[in-house]
Amino acid sequence: MVNAEPILKTENLQCFYGSQRVIHDLNIEVLPNEILGVIGPANSGKTTFLRALNRLNALNPSYRQSGTITFEGQDLRKIPDNLLRKKIGSIFALPQVLPISIYQNIAYGPKVHGVASKSKVDQIVEESLQKAYLWDEVKDRLDLQANRLSGGQQQRLCIARTLAVEPEVILYDEPCSGLDPISTAKVEDAMQKLKEHYTQILVTNNTKQAARVSDRTAFFLMGELVEMTDTNTLFTSPRDSRTNDYITGRFG
Amino acid sequence: MRRKLSEIFIEGCIRLSGVLCISFVVLIFLFLLKDALALFGGYSAGKFLFGSQWLPVSEPPHFGIVPLVIGSLYVTLGAILICVPIGVGAAMFIAEVAPQSLKTILKSLVEILAAIPSVVLGFIGIVWLGPFLKTTLGLSTGMCGLTGSLLLAFMALPTIISISEDALAGVPKAYREAAFGLGATRWQTLWRILLPAASSGIIAGVMLGIGRVIGETMVVMMVTGNAPVIPASILQPLRTLTATVASEMGEAVSGSEHYFALFAVGLILFIITFLINLVADMSLRKARR
Ligand SMILES: Nc1ncnc2c1ncn2[C@@H]1O[C@H](COP(=O)(O)OP(=O)(O)OP(=O)(O)O)[C@@H](O)[C@H]1O
Ligand SMILES: [Mg+2]
Q1: For residue B115, how far is the Cα from the chain centroid?
Q2: In what order do the strands lie in the sheet with A224-230?
Q3: What gap in Å lies between CA A39 and CA A251, rounded to an integer?
Q4: Number of domains in chain A
Q5: Are the beta carbons of B267 and B36 closer than 8 angstroms?
Q6: Closest residue of B to A99, CA-based?
Q7: A118, A132, A217, B1: which could form a disulfide with A160 (CB 3.0–4.6 Å)?
Q8: What separation in Å is there between the alpha carbon of A46 and the centre of ligand 1?
Q9: What SS3 class is residue B143?
């Protein structure tokens, strides 16, 4: 795994909101099929990093960035927005279900990418819900408005929706911050099963979650990557004292 | 104790204004009803509703409102067909496509549009739009239904644009990000997510715009030719319900049959607007569900 070509790579990435620099010189490589955990205190630039990867940051007019990001060896800037975001899907902290039915939420992605046949869409909806471990809970009420689901169900719906467009990478930004332990376990479970086909990056404020789920973990502090290594090593014998302070809860 | 008093006072005021509002509407309706029904003592309701001639000063007079209803229908439908697509389209452009600087300019422009008095628009219709339509479409007169429709559409546009634009801008950012995050293009996001999510606001804007179109009197009186006959098409002179009341009220003798007939026309207008509001309300409620 260490020898695999990185699927995503940033070189000297710097991110700015207006004149405020929130990521300094980030060099990071993400390997295929790994779960990369990203931890760090508030405002350390974790969200900004994730949103740079599928260019959602660009929706903010004050945002600028420098440096390069490559995806599968190709400069990110050369990939059109809609294609890039199809390949790199994202799950946010608060489930962002659309104000339409469960079925429509999932069918939306495939439809905008040109899947027209009803039976094909039906099939994608079922498969995606199954992969996100939601199918059994909703199969009898696919026409229900998605926002009637519980928070945990909504989050898994968002995962299903992202899976439905067949991405290669899935970005999670604190996906469990609003969920109870049981829903959290379900989401983590889903992530483990998805490893086989997807590369996943998990930003989390919960260091225990990173320790449970991720293969490698990166520690961000004030817009800098302090340390990135095997999850095990990072949590048992971190190289940097700041990492140690953070994971032992002695920070700040 | 003092706080309690002020609360009671405020609550009383709010209650009073609510009651006042309702009683005004009821009073207006009763007032209209009383004078309108006076017509049907001597003139048959059937002839009023289905008569094809409006000749209030002939002997005997005819008070058939069919030409007026058709005139109103032509002008109103024409205006709606013109202003709804343009208004919603412009709102979409301002909310989602235009860059920030252009957005600010366009929004203030729309506000200025809203402030143009209707007489001025009527004036423009008489000296410019009417003659222009006459020559380009080869009409016998430019004072026709289409001229009225165009000007009314223009008057309804600011309402439709600004309310629809607000509705679009008010769609939660999360929906946009979710759609973009799935790889939808801007257009797909606008069409399939933002428009449906903003639909109740857009419908409200359109209904308010249409309300303005139906109730407007001045412009239609000035430019539609003032001919109370059944028009063959929107390109002919015609007269609307509102324009009839406005132009004849001055000459009708108080308490005469003509006078009551105009009240009956007012009652019909009242009922029409009431029904439209009802439909709008129902569709809004449906859209919210
Ligand atoms: N839309 C924005 N406009 C301006 N500044 C922003 C914006 N989003 C983030 N920032 C700034 O960028 C810095 C990094 O924020 P970011 O959201 O990436 O941190 P984070 O590590 O995700 O924090 P948290 O753990 O609280 O989510 C912060 O100082 C924040 O104030
Ligand atoms: Mg964050």
Answers
A1: 16
A2: A88-91, A169-173, A199-203, A35-39, A216-221, A224-230
A3: 13
A4: 1
A5: yes
A6: B197
A7: A132
A8: 8
A9: coil
> Residues B12-31: pLDDT tens digits?
999 999 999 999 989 999 99
ipTM: 0.86
Angle at B19 between CA B21 and CA B217, to 5 degrees: 10
- What Cα–Cα distance (Å) separates residue A177 from each residue in A184, A185, A199, A209? 9, 12, 21, 11
Q: List all residues of chain B from 75 to 114 with a beta carbon under 8 Å from chain A.
A: 100
* CATH assignment of the domain containing A149: 3.40.50.300
What are the backbone angles phi and psi of residue B91, rounded to the nearest 5°? -65, -40
Asked if the structure places residue A1 within a domain, the reply is: no
Could you tell me the two tokens for A142?
A: 């696919």
Q: Which amino acid is at B147?
A: T
Q: Flag whether pLDDT at B2 surpasses 80.
A: no
Which of the four pLDDT bands, split at 50, 70 and 90, describes residue A250? confident
Number of CB atoms found within 10 A of residue A66's CB: 11
Q: What confidence tens digit (pLDDT) does each residue in B123-167 have?
A: 999 999 999 999 999 888 889 999 999 999 999 999 999 999 999
The answer to the question of residue A85 being in a domain is: yes
State mean pLDDT over B73-85. Answer: 93
Contact yes or no for B43/B262 (Cβ under 8 A):
no
Kindly list the residues from chain B whose CB atom is less than 8 angstroms away from the CB atom of residue A96. 174-175, 177-178, 181
Write out the residue range of the structural domain in which residue A54 sits: 8-247
